[in-house]
Amino acid sequence: MASIKKNLILIVDDNSKNLQVLGKILYEKGYNINVASSGAKALQSVNIQPPDLILLDIQMPEMDGFDVCKILKSNAKTKDIPVIFLTAATDTESIVKGFKLGGMDYITKPFNNEELIIRVNTHIDLRAKTLELQKINQNLEKIVEERTHQLHEYAFITSHNLRKPLANIIGFISILEQSIDKKEQFPEILKYLKNSSTELDNIIKETAHNLNKK
Questions:
Q1: Most confident range, picked from 94-98, 155-159, 193-197
Q2: CATH 3.30.470 correct for 139-213
Q3: Where are the domains of the chain?
Q4: Which of 108, 133, 137, 200 has the alpha carbon at shortest distance from 163?
Q5: Which of 16, 22, 101, 122 gives the lowest tally of CB atoms within 10 Å of its CB?
Q6: What 3-state class would DSSP assign to 110?
Q7: Cis before residue 110, ω within 30 degrees of 0?
Q8: Is 63 helix (H, G, I), strand (E, B) or coil?
Q9: Closest Cα to residue 49, out of 105, 7, 104, 106?
Q10: Domain 8-111 class?
């Protein structure tokens, strides 16, 4: 089952034969391959060209796979790159430690080709979907931010427009209270109250209509 993917996989192992075998298997499945024979070289490679997936041997001199993974997961630029541990160890302690450090999976040596391809394909696909979701979320956050800004501006303008008719109503009510004995002024005052109330009502209706459209 040939893959049309062109994702980059970094293989880290101090055993050159393992690098050749893994590289050949994955290259024939359509993946681009980088290799590193030590933990230090792996970290250099990741900084130069971040891969889509790392196959990381645990037992290496100077810097083992656990140490490499710990450094990768502590760096904001590399923490989200999925790591699959390569190990001859099948003890629960090593497996659990790898998961706790942020490893996504593990493959035991000697490699089963079919299992290797299935696990690599699975995590490459998960990585692609994760990046796609992150992009969608970023776009949604941008849209929400823009709409929130627009609504704040609209609310400010609307509140400003409401102040005048509301101030008129309050003022006329105050005049009514002070002119309770001058009934001849009531019709004129009521007319102004009605006009201001109508203006206020129109602004509220227009605001509701515009918000519904948004």
A1: 94-98
A2: no
A3: 8-111, 139-213
A4: 200
A5: 16
A6: coil
A7: yes
A8: coil
A9: 7
A10: alpha beta
